[in-house]
Design a protein that fits this description.
about 475 residues, alpha/beta
Length: about 475
């Protein structure tokens, strides 16, 4: 069996050398235009060479000189062809191809015969040396296997893998790679990164450009990482874009310290416990139903359709951010009241996630470990944009259904994330002080939660007082 493998590998390398030489010939042929006269000239020159050698040989050694001249002529022609083929091989070869072959062989990226993929072509993308498209030839390794092996290929080459797909020729595959140092480790957040499209949010920068999330199509965004991975900064950078666009922003900050006074002064409504979040969810469900009925009455399919028809009476988009969601959504507690409250919160979030997109509701979830006990299957399915930073294999599996983040995201680079689409990006470096240029305003979220938008009923001050009193009495009974 080993002998067969060695023979196959020998044949593979032979085919590689032949193919590389032919590739060089094609490149030279493409660079120089041949015509029949050039071919005739080459034949005439060979004949003249033979004639000169023949005259010299016959003059010195007689009739035997004819054979000697023929042998010398053929030898010179073979030498010329050999030199030309060697030149074509080097013209068609890719620098470092043999080293890459050996690196992939060491990494175990081989077919059943033990053959590693052969590099046929290396192209810089957009003129950037660290951003390359590598074309490999490989028999017996299907595309799905290539994609499964992408972390091992990345480790073998010392590069990040952006995308792997089939090439134009049979048995070829193109691998989009970027150098480890292509992405900066810090990119400052600024209002300039905010897209003009009201539903698009800039998530960070990849080697291919800015990565966006469109909440019209993907209303739920999840950020997850181990401590120090930069998930809070990433989440704040997204929330700040919502504030800048005059979204109604509601934040559940169970740690009490992440979203300070500057967020409140810019119009954010913040809650810190189960009672506050449960009340918010109950109000949001009411607003959800109001908007749904309102759009139906006005024959509008979604909020964008309505705002286009009635620009003088636009509906604001709403974003709910749950920081450290493992606290807010974990129903595993022996406290019956707390358990019941969190179950209601989870049910409300599931309804919001499933039906809120078309009326302008979206949400952000940030946590360290998105386990099944915290994120229900229904909610997980609606978190269609997922960003995973510094993590172990378990965290990566929970969030992305694979362990790629633990292999591709360095532990010493805060703000580096892997998306569920396989993109590696550097999130923006955000500080709360970056909100200073945003005008202060009274919380529109409070008015929205209490009164909606006047679609059906404006709550009177007396009703607000009674509602708050009822809430207080309910809290006292729990105590």
């Amino acid at each position: 069996m080993n002998a067969n493998k060695n023979e196959l590998q020998h044949n593979t390398m032979l085919h590689y050398y032949i193919g590389t030489t032919i590739n060089g010939i094609k490149q030279m042929a493409g660079a120089v235009s041949f015509c029949p006269l050039q071919i005739i000239a080459a034949v005439v020159m060979a004949w003249l060479l033979y004639s000169v050698l023949d005259l010299k040989a016959t003059a010195s050694i007689g009739e035997i000189g004819h054979s000697m001249a023929a042998v010398q002529t053929v030898s010179l022609l073979v030498l010329a062809v050999t030199v030309a083929l060697i030149g074509c091989y080097y013209k068609g070869s890719v620098p470092g191809a043999k080293r890459i072959y050996q690196d992939l062989l060491r990494g175990g990226v081989v077919n059943s015969a033990g053959e590693a993929p052969l590099l046929l072509k290396k192209e810089a993308i957009n003129g950037k040396a660290g951003n390359c498209l590598l074309t490999f030839k490989s028999t017996g390794i299907p595309l799905e296997r290539w994609q499964d092996l992408s972390p091992i290929i990345a480790a073998s080459l010392g590069l990040y893998i952006v995308e792997i797909k089939e090439g134009n020729a049979p048995y070829t595959y193109t691998v989009h790679t970027v150098a480890n140092e292509c992405l900066p480790t810090k990119i400052d957040w600024s209002p300039d990164i905010i897209p003009t499209d009201q539903t698009k949010f800039a998530l960070g920068e990849a080697v291919t450009g800015t990565v966006y999330a469109d909440i019209q199509n993907d209303p739920g965004i999840l950020t997850a990482s181990a401590t120090g991975g930069g998930k809070t900064m990433e989440t704040k950078g997204i929330a700040a874009q919502a504030l800048w666009r005059d979204y109604i922003l509601i934040v559940a900050d169970y740690k009490y310290v992440e979203y300070g006074g500057i967020w409140s002064s810019k119009g954010t409504y913040i809650v810190h416990d189960d009672d506050g979040l449960l009340w918010v969810m109950q109000q949001l469900i009411e607003r959800l139903h109001d908007r749904r009925d309102w759009l139906a009455e006005h024959d509008c399919r979604n909020i964008d359709d309505y705002n286009a028809k009635y620009p003088e009476n636009k509906l604001h988009r709403v974003m709910l951010l749950i920081d450290e969601a493992a606290i807010a959504l974990d129903t595993r507690t022996n406290n019956k009241a707390k358990k019941a409250a969190r179950q209601q919160i989870v049910e409300a979030i599931n309804e919001l996630a499933c039906t809120g997109r078309f009326v302008g509701f979206s949400f952000l979830v940030s946590l360290q470990r998105p386990s099944a006990e915290v994120l229900s299957g229904e909610l997980r399915n609606n978190l269609t944009i997922r960003l995973v930073g510094k993590s172990d294999a378990n965290l990566s599996m929970l969030a992305l259904d694979n362990a790629d983040a633990s292999k591709l995201i360095p532990n010493d680079t805060p703000g580096r994330f892997l998306t569920n689409e396989g993109q590696i990006l550097q999130g923006y470096y955000f500080l709360d002080t970056m909100l200073r240029d945003l005008p202060d305003k009274k919380s529109p979220a409070w008015t929205f939660l209490m009164n909606g938008e006047g679609l059906y009923h404006q709550t009177t001050m007396e009703e607000i007082i009674n509602k708050n009193n009822d809430k207080g009495e309910s809290n006292n009974e729990k105590c």
